[in-house]
Amino acid sequence: MTRRRSRGYTVVELMMALAVFTAGVTGIIAMQRSVVAANRHARNVTVANGIAQAWLDQLAVDSSLWRTSLDQTAWLKTLNDAGTDGVWQLPAPSIATERNFGPTFNLFGAPTAGATDFCVHVRLTWLYPDELRGGRAGSGSIRTDVRVFWARDGGTRVAADCTSNAAATIADVGVDANDSYFFVYQTGAVAQHP
Fold first, then answer.
1. Which of 26, 113, 145, 160 is the one with CA 20 to 30 A from 135?
2. pTM, full prediction
3. Rounded to whole angstroms, how far apart are CA atoms 169 and 161?
4. Domain residue spans in the chain?
């Protein structure tokens, strides 16, 4: 009876298997990094869309106070100021206890004073003037644009981007010449309640 010799793996075969395994693991790690970055960006876009929609809803609620004059409203009344029609502005935080809403939001999309994860600018434009501006009584309407922005990884933020209502600061954020921000825009309209 002849004995069969058991044969093992050679060093060359082991090295080849190790090289194939290392290439596969390296590819998986590289792919995982890009998947994590894509998921973070998708989450930020989702949160920013929610913030923009919440602002449009707040402006719609604000319009329910607009009977004869914009003075009773929290944010729409800024159209009473000269030079604000159709201009991006940083909305003032509403300190009323029933609203507790402002231009700054944390990473989870909650309105938080002083947070800089997400910031909001609002642009109000007359579509049809109310009676105080030469229109028909009770028929005023305003276009509401909301832009939510957040800093890119490694981007250089504009100083006071979430706190300054200066036209130059807001313009610098909007130009985004150095690709420092991501933006989400949403548009709506509100009407006067006669």
1. 145
2. 0.82
3. 6
4. 41-191
